[in-house]
Amino acid sequence: MTVLRSTLDPAGADAVAAREAMLEALAGIGAETAKAVAGGGAQAVARHQARGKMTARERIELLLDLDAHFLELGALAGYGSPFAVGGSVVAGIGVVSGVECLIVANDPTVKGGASNPWSLRKTLRMHEIALRNRLPLIALVESGGADLPTQKDVFIPGGAVFRDLTRLSAAGIPTIALVFGNSTAGGAYLPGMSDHVVMIEKRSKVFLAGPPLVKAATGEESDDESLGGAEMHARVSGLADHFAIDEPDAIRIGRRIVARLNWHKDGPAPTPAQPPRFPAEDLLSIVPPGLKSPFDPREVIARIVDDSDFDEVKPLYGTSLVTGWARLHGYPVGILANAQGVLFSAEAQKAAQFIQLANRSHTPLLFLHNTTGYMVGKEYEQGGIIKHGAMMINAVSNSTVPHVSVLIGNSYGAGHYGMCGRAYDPRFVFAWPSARSAVMGAQQLADVTYLVSKASAMARGKPFDEDGAQVVRTMIEQQITAESMPLVLSGMVYDDGIIDPRDTRDVLGVALSAIHSAPVQGTDAFGVFRM
Known about the structure:
Blueprint: H1 13-38, H2 42-50, H3 56-63, E1 70-72, E2 89-96, E3 99-106, H4 117-133, E4 137-143, H5 151-170, E5 175-184, H6 189-192, E6 196-200, E7 205-207, H7 211-218, H8 224-228, H9 230-237, E8 242-244, H10 247-259, H11 297-301, E9 311-313, E10 321-328, E11 331-338, E12 342-343, H12 345-360, E13 365-371, E14 373-374, H13 378-382, H14 385-398, E15 403-412, H15 413-418, E16 428-431, E17 436-438, H16 442-459, H17 466-483, H18 486-491, H19 504-515
Parallel strand pairs: 3-4, 4-5, 5-6, 5-7, 6-8, 11-13, 12-14, 13-15, 15-16, 15-17
Antiparallel strand pairs: 1-2, 2-3, 9-10, 10-11
Helix pairs in contact: 4-5, 12-14, 16-17
């Protein structure tokens, strides 16, 4: 039997403490997520709706198939910045006319939907997801253009938005723009570079320069409608492919466009799925508070894979890394999960071989992070930890099967890289509220800084200020602790969202379904492995 067993006692003291800590963290994340859902706030939303307009989220809800899922991505972008949480953009994966699509909607209740550095970073990440997973892109457009006070952070990198649209189109991935309001200046190129464009009577305004700027530049008198209105673009310029009478009509037309795409998935279809044998509710009770003790990742795997069925590979070798095969919502996956945190030479070599096997069988890989990095010390350096860690990173870097990463616990140092961190282009990255990620643990980093400063003073023959060094040490530990928290990292769009552990299986199911919109193909071409 390959069905996993569980030793978790949900009523035990450790499990209860873990659950309480996780629920407390989820409450804090929920409060921040509520800010994103609120958009520009009650007053701004009321003003917007008084104009007869739907909010970005209402537009998405009407666009989606009845009772279809919507996996929101990057919901906490901009957290900790001067900008509204969410980055004035709502984005995610949803089903439209039976087709999984990547949807990006400007939130006009936040500074008129103006593009700021965080909305730009989020939008570019969404384009990357659409391109790599072969997802049709639907843009719900209503934006006043760039946030001018931050134009230096938006203008130059912002050109990639339009570049991406043309690359998606060139790759045969449909791009659809439903224009609900302003799309001005550089933003006019968003519908201009989309495959399908829908504009709304007396609502859509698409022009490179509005009437005041045209008058200032050329002396010409004009009005919004003749310069860039929907009827003009439908009758005269030809920019509009479809002319809608109101917002619901535009959404109806958008759904019909998707229905006529004749779209199909290029990846293999899933087999019938079976639920895990253990309840998802238990996932709240596995990770110890503060990550102060190890936990068995098999307890997580047993609650997310089909029938809790897991074929483990090399279970007696490199035991601080669990590797094996399973199915998740009917999709085959290879799983790499950290067990005891530290990666030794055996674990690195085990991972490299397993990644090669996954590529031979064209099987997507799921990385469950809880690592403090590769082992250090004279014995391990002499044993080849550098070349073995490099072997694992080489395999991850050159693997071509889709990767998905979930940061469950620690994800520090080069171990973060070896486990396919954000820089290694996983198709999706998600985090639990318990996740932590940095160059090393906060206490270790503070200790290193303290020891280096002390050694430097002694080497120069100068007195060492112990009290002052301890103050600095404490400040650094507090800083790194704060910076390694999932809210901060998610705010920087270093992941695609912080998820409730109980939702892990379904979130991964949507991600795997999206991944299989594109071909799933492994490789046998890797860099030189140092032996």
